[in-house]
Design a protein that fits this description.
two-stranded antiparallel ribbon; globular; single chain; Isoase_HisA-like; alpha/beta; isomerase; TIM Barrel; His_biosynth; 244 residues; ten-stranded mixed beta sheet; HisA/PriA
Length: 244
């Protein structure tokens, strides 16, 4: 169980714009009339220490499309964790060179865990965050890839313990069915993770509506909550979440 808790605002980028997808569906996109750097500065001014940034184009297509925006955000001074489009070690280095403090790795964390474990060793467990984003299907937590558009055979109960045993420190886990829905977080998912890999500092993502959900996640023992749509639409104030 985590001894500290961090509220982490999120910025999802597509075509250089701030957007949100519903349940990872690129056809169900909501755009927001705010520049990425302006939004990042707003979160910094509200007291955020960390910011989560996703290159949605890169996540789906396997090539960075929003790196300049990520670089500009990192210059604000927030500690940024970013992912989407990491397909090789050169991509990891490019994100570090862009000023990112932690690199989040999704598709390869599912498809090639041995490779990602090598990066944990090479770059340090504080700097690499495997992302095991899950859907409950057929009695197991399934782990799709490529911006959640491609199905894989690996499951959460296989990979979470493997990363923990290999020395991972952090794990990002989104319930895809809750993502962008404002339906509340899936506390059962994080209870499962607490059993599967109790030493991992888990970042919960998907479904957070309000400060009550943030408090519930902290009580569930996760290390942090990634907050997207609820902040963008004013349903949750970042100051409230940070006060948790």
């Amino acid at each position: 169980m985590a001894t500290t808790f961090t509220a982490i605002p999120a910025i999802d980028l597509r075509g250089g714009r701030v957007v949100r997808l519903q349940q990872g569906d690129y056809a169900r996109q909501t755009g927001y009339a705010v520049e990425p750097v302006t939004l990042a500065q707003r979160y910094a001014d509200a007291g955020a220490a960390w910011l989560h940034v996703v290159d949605l184009d890169g996540a789906r297509d396997g090539a960075f499309a929003n790196l300049r925006a990520i670089e500009a955000i990192a210059r604000i001074g927030l500690r940024v964790q970013a992912g989407g489009g990491v397909r090789g070690e050169d991509d990891v280095r490019r994100l570090f060179d862009a000023g990112v403090a932690r690199v989040v790795i999704g598709s390869l964390a599912v498809r090639e865990p041995a490779r990602v474990i090598g990066w944990l060793v090479a770059f340090g467990a504080e700097r690499v965050v495997p992302a095991l984003d899950a859907r409950w299907r057929g009695g197991a937590w399934r782990l799709p890839s490529a911006g959640w558009t491609e199905q894989e055979t690996a499951t959460l109960d296989q990979l979470a313990p493997r990363y923990a045993a290999a020395g991972a420190r952090h794990l990002l886990c989104t319930d895809i069915d809750r993502d962008g829905t404002l339906a509340g977080p899936n506390l059962d998912l994080y209870a499962d993770l607490a059993v599967l890999a109790p030493k991992l500092a888990v970042q919960a993502s998907g479904g957070v509506r309000d400060v009550g959900d943030v408090r519930a996640l902290r009580a569930a023992g996760v290390a942090g909550a990634v907050l997207g749509r609820s902040l963008l639409e004013g349903r949750l104030m970042l100051a409230e979440a940070l006060a948790c």
